[in-house]
Amino acid sequence: MIEDLPAPLLKLKVLIWVHSVIGVALIGGLIATIGSRQEGLAVGVLACMVAWMVGLGSLRRKAEDLAPEDLVAPKGLPAWIPPVVAGNGLLAPLWLANALAPWMAGAWISLGATIVLRWLISRSLAISVHRKSWGRMLLALSTPLLWLVLGLLFMLLIGWDA
């Protein structure tokens, strides 16, 4: 997949990912500082968010500088992936019923927010998200479902009564 993309487009897509991760971290930091009533830190996080938004302008310029031959047409999303992610969402109460629930929920929400932010940035820059990328992102969101199924299989194999 990566070898099929022109170098300028690949570089821009990597920058979009990095920008998305930083954006989610800043949003999480803002929520945490407001929740802990640390106004001084919240002002610092807001300043970083302004710098992050200025960085969007740089991404936009890089997207506008791409040559037409650098833009690759996307393919559609595989039809089997949305039901897997939806099933994971329906089973969320089950995978949240353990001692690591807050960490798992936080990681899952952060990953989901990063994917949404990446999609929004890509869409605003008219940079397509390709089929394999969507598939991998949505499968990553389904990781808790995988762990739940593996745990249930393990419990069945060893004959453990819960």
Task: Summarize the structure in words.
By secondary structure, the protein is mainly α. The chain has one domain (2-158). Helices cover 74% and strands 0% of the residues. It is built from seven helices and no strands. The chain has helices at residues 7-35, 39-64, 81-90, 92-95, 101-124, 131-141, 143-158. The longest helix is centred in the N-terminal third of the chain and has 29 residues, at 7-35. The termini are far apart. The relative contact order is 0.14.
The rounded Rg comes to 19 Å
Shape: flat
Helix content, binned percent: over 70%
Element order: H for helix, E for strand: HHHHHHH
For the termini, the CA-CA separation is: 43 Å
> How much strand content do the residues show?
under 5%
The biggest beta sheet is recorded as: none
Low-confidence regions: none
Q: What integer is the average pLDDT?
A: 75
The helix count comes to 7
> How many β-strand runs?
0
Structural class: mainly alpha
How many domain regions? 1
Summary of the model, kept short:
This protein has 162 residues and is mostly helical. The protein has helices at 7-35, 39-64, 81-90, 92-95, 101-124, 131-141, 143-158. The model has no long low-confidence stretch (mean pLDDT 75).
Any key phrases for this structure?
162 residues, mainly alpha, 74% helix
